[in-house]
Amino acid sequence: MNVVVLLKQTFDTEEKIVVSNGAVSEDGVKFVINPYDEYAVEEAIRLKEESGANSVTVLSVGPARTAEALRTALAMGADEAVLIEDDRIPQDEYAVSVVLAAYLKQQSADVILGGNFSVDTGGSQVAVRLAETLGIPHVSSITKLTVSGGSASAERDAEGDLERVDVQLPAVFTAQQGLNEPRYPSLPGIMKAKKKPFKQLTLDDVGVSAGDLEAKTARQSLSLPPSRQAGQILSGDLASQAAKLVELLRTQSKAI
Amino acid sequence: MSKTFLIVAEHRDGKLRQVTLEALQAAARSAQDGDAIHAALLGGGLDALASELAAYPLAKVHVIENEGLNAYNPEAYVRALTPLLDALKPDGLFLGHTAIGRDLAPALAAKLSAGQLSDVTAIDQEGGEVVFTRPIYAGKAIEKKTFLAYPWVVTVRPNNIPAAEAAGGGAAIEKHAAAPAADLRTVVRDVVRKTSGKVDLTEAKVIVSGGRGVKNADGFKPLEELADLLGGAVGASRGACDAGYCDYALQIGQTGKVVTPEIYIACGISGAIQHVAGMSGSRIIIAINKDPEAPIFQLADYGIVGDLFEVVPLLTQEFRKVLA
């Protein structure tokens, strides 16, 4: 059984967003493995440790800085990293999924794991698009995964309800919080990671022509949300504050 | 040339979901005179829902009939919708950004080789172009996007675009028999309804949310009581989820859900940037925290400095008086 993890590098969730020249500024920003993808990496490593998976490959389409996130995944215990980096790939979920599909068609992946969504542009698209493009089933937002033989059982979070889903492999799964507790890379893990295979590929290597990747969407503008002002802190004993608040909600903000 | 748009309707517990009417409004805002908006409804025993939907400004309501489709299965849904997509050749699909919509939309988008804009909060026509607004980084920034090619796939964030209103007209209802779902590779064995009878977090008008300050799982009880009274839902910060006080499904923030209720009541939540990203779009924010220096007070419309275990029951009492 071969496991592939789709990984995106994102801003740390504690980062503030600065817009400059119509784009999100990356100056001085701390980057991490997209938190949902980190669950996917952990789950893949566990499939190797506990369910006899042969190999774990972490795969990314992204800029050169993504190498750092892939190295972290290798240090956690993945076996091999693949970074498809090419300026001709538009930042569009359609294009990214086409590139991933082209690469994975040449591989034999039984389990493909990704995050439920990325905490930056948050489209929740790429993993499911990939499954459809490859013609294999998917189960999104999983909180449990058991693989045996040619099939898998997953528990899926559907807006708080829990669905138990059986699926034939190969299949794509996306990780939801609660799937596992990702490990930190160990020092020996970090040392070993330096010697693990790390492939850098371009569109030509994957066999996709730039003409097949025309973006389907375009950004027209980017702005920061209107900032909220601190309102009023109520005073008096707590019982009268509670009464005052309910009154303000009725009279001032007309919310009830 | 006139366009055809298709809404994939959602129903739950025998009712149309509010977000479906919001998706319909989203399609209407994307449309020009002469464009046609259709709706697809999947499942069995849906005559009443189909009639209800037919009262909205739609060209046609398509009912894809099969009892098995009352429960969502991505593979079965894609398969059931395929003949309709082939026949209708829609220029745009509109779904809610819900558990079903966010799972189904990208599959349909891939099938149609379409672009998709997810989690859209506003739609405007500007100079002949349809412009879609969507928050990114969980609302820390807002982008406006356009499609460069048809067909489009759009998912709309619940609670942002006003629901379409019934026009009183009767759209035609067309029934399609869905082929029985044979040889599916995906089988949904069972669904454990943990949220039965509860309001979904992303659709809730009122959210009462707890942080580390609730101290343990029992600490959520007064919050639940207040939420139930107001017909709302309970949410949580990452701190409360990580500490094991509640299920991750309740988490609001950049990891977790982004919510935009009318009223957000943050109880014992300090206001870490990752949480704020998920709730700062709420219309009214109320903060209850023992610590007067908590950052949450910097964005709250109303703040009460005090112990949530004292304040929340008092609030519940006051609301009860008003709502009685």
TrEMBL record, chain A:
SUPFAM superfamilies: Adenine nucleotide alpha hydrolases-like. Gene3D superfamilies: HUPs. Pfam families: ETF. GO terms for cellular component: cytosol. GO terms for molecular function: electron transfer activity. Keywords: Electron transport, Transport. Residues 21-210 form the Electron transfer flavoprotein alpha/beta-subunit N-terminal domain. InterPro entries: ETF_a/b_N, ETF_b, ETF_beta_N, Rossmann-like_a/b/a_fold. Heterodimer of an alpha and a beta subunit. PANTHER family: ELECTRON TRANSFER FLAVOPROTEIN BETA-SUBUNIT, ELECTRON TRANSFER FLAVOPROTEIN SUBUNIT BETA. Belongs to the ETF beta-subunit/FixA family. This is Electron transfer flavoprotein subunit beta. It comes from Paenibacillus methanolicus.
Automatic annotation (TrEMBL), chain B:
It holds the Pfam family ETF_alpha. Its cofactor is FAD. InterPro entries: DHS-like_NAD/FAD-binding_dom, ETF_a/b_N, ETF_a/FixB, ETF_alpha_N, ETF_asu_C, ETF_asu_C_CS, Rossmann-like_a/b/a_fold. Residues 5-188 form the Electron transfer flavoprotein alpha/beta-subunit N-terminal domain. One of its GO terms (biological process) is fatty acid beta-oxidation using acyl-CoA dehydrogenase. FAD binds at residues 212, 237-238, 251-255, 268-275, 289. Binds 1 FAD per dimer. Keywords: Electron transport, FAD, Flavoprotein, Transport. One of its GO terms (molecular function) is electron transfer activity. The keyword Metal-binding does not apply. The keyword Aminoacyl-tRNA synthetase does not apply. PROSITE patterns: ETF_ALPHA. It comes from the Bacteria. Belongs to the ETF alpha-subunit/FixB family. This is Electron transfer flavoprotein alpha subunit. It comes from Paenibacillus methanolicus. The lineage of its organism: Bacteria, Bacillati, Bacillota, Bacilli, Bacillales.
